[in-house]
Amino acid sequence: MREEIAAQHRRLDPLFEAVRDAFERAAVEADRALADLAEALAAHFEQEDRLYYPTIGSLRPEHRGRVDRFAIDHRRFLAQLDGVAERVQRRALEEASREFEAFAHDFAGHEAGEEALLHALQAELDAAP
Fold first, then answer.
1. pTM (predicted TM-score)
2. N or C end of the chain, less CB within 10 A?
């Protein structure tokens, strides 16, 4: 599972770059790139929130609080991305770009936290007799 989620995270990286590139070109492109990223993130979060994290929370209740916070973060990230898109639609591209970079930074930290948890769980499994 750890490798699958990490691979999914890496597949999102080009979408983040597409948004950055689009900010430099035009609002129409930024709007489309943000929509593509939002769609991919929604699908990614749905998979994590419906398949992976409920299983972890059930099998490892000591981690339930952490995976519940991941789900809360997912909703917050989608709302942040909506805010960036709204600024793009208003043609406030510089503001949108700054907000997107803050979002991307927060999201990278979130990904690292998810991957750290999954790495720790895998290490526990590997160490089990």
1. 0.80
2. C
Residues 6+ apart with CB under 8 A from 1: 52, 118, 122
Q: In this structure, what DSSP letter does residue 52 have?
A: I
**pLDDT tens-digit profile of 13-38?**
999 888 888 877 777 788 888 999 99
Q: Which of the 8 DSSP states describes residue 91?
A: T
The residue type at 19: V
Domain range list for the chain? 2-127
Question: Tokens 């709007």, residue?
Answer: 31
What would the CATH number be for the domain defined by 2-127?
A: 1.20.120
Angle between helices 27-47 and 64-89 (to 10 degrees): 160
CB 5 within 8 A of CB 118: yes
